[in-house]
Write a structure and sequence with these properties.
20% of the residues lie in helices and 43% in strands. The chain is α+β, with helices and mostly antiparallel strands and 267 residues long. The protein has 2 helices and 13 strands, in the order αβββββββαββββββ. It is a single-pass membrane protein. Keywords: Membrane, Transmembrane, Transmembrane helix. InterPro entries: LEA_2, NDR1-like. Pfam families: LEA_2 (PF03168).
């Protein structure tokens, strides 16, 4: 019996998938690489921020420590400002001279005595030489100085004497009129005295830096020796007796003068 032909098994291979086309947006894209320039820039910025932070923190800590130390010193020693008083002011010469051109000059001679008191128990003041200016109607009419430095010990009173001069000072007509009007009053003309110096403070073994102080004394009134205050063509009071100013109402205020570069601050 003849065998029946068998149909050969046929297998059909599947065609390969079509190649994937790249997306149009990825045609020019490069692989990511970190930018070293940006990394270093951020690194430096972090260092700068840390430096600023620690600098500000250190400054705040130093200010806090200084404040605490100042409070401790104040509570322990209770420091007070020195006080100043005008003891006497004597005018021995006061000559107003007006020439033919109605220009007035002033020549004066005065003796000033003042005192300074240190009210503290354990604080010492060191004073530089003192510059003295005497004013009438906000116009300087005499000046002088105390050229010696001195030390004001605790609970001590120091008396200072100085001579003031005004040599042929040119006065404005408004100042002359004001002086003439004041001299007609029973109390006389009001005077103002400025004392300028530098002082250093010592507490136990701690010394401060020198700081400027200005002492302003007001409430002083005085007449002048006879013949010297009329503002006439020629007034001379050389031989007249000295006149003592009234200083019972005089008050002196002490102001700190702190200078920072071009500016001076008072307190």
């Amino acid at each position: 019996m003849a065998d029946k032909p068998t149909a050969a098994a046929t297998t059909t291979a599947k065609p390969p998938p079509p190649p994937t086309k790249p997306h149009p947006n990825n045609l020019n894209r490069h692989p990511y690489r970190p930018n070293p320039t940006i990394y270093h820039r951020n690194h430096r910025r972090n260092y700068f921020c840390l430096f600023c932070f620690w600098s500000i923190l250190i400054i705040i800590l130093l200010l806090l420590i200084a404040t605490i130390a100042g409070c401790i010193l104040y509570l322990l020693y209770r420091p007070h400002r020195p006080t100043f008083d005008i003891t006497s002011l004597k005018i021995s010469h006061f000559n107003l001279t007006t020439n033919a051109d109605d220009v007035t000059h002033l020549t004066s001679n005065m003796n000033l005595t003042f005192s300074t008191k240190n009210p503290n128990k354990r604080v010492v003041f060191f004073y530089d030489p003192i510059t003295i200016n005497l004013l009438v109607a906000d116009t300087q009419i005499a000046n002088g100085s105390f050229v010696n430095s001195f030390v004001s010990e605790p609970n001590n009173i120091t008396v200072v004497r100085s001579q003031l001069y005004g040599a042929n000072l040119l006065l404005e007509s408004s100042t002359v009129n004001q002086i003439s009007a004041d001299l007609k009053k029973k109390s006389g003309m009001p005077l103002k005295i400025y004392l300028d110096t530098k002082t250093q403070v010592k507490i136990e073994s701690i010394k401060s830096k020198k700081v400027g102080i200005r002492i302003v004394c007001e409430g002083i009134h005085s007449l002048v020796p006879k013949g010297g205050g009329g503002g006439g063509k020629s007034g001379n009071s050389t031989a007249a007796a000295a006149v003592a100013a009234t200083v019972t109402d005089a008050k002196c205020n002490v102001d700190l003068r702190i200078k920072i570069w071009k500016w001076t601050f008072s307190s």
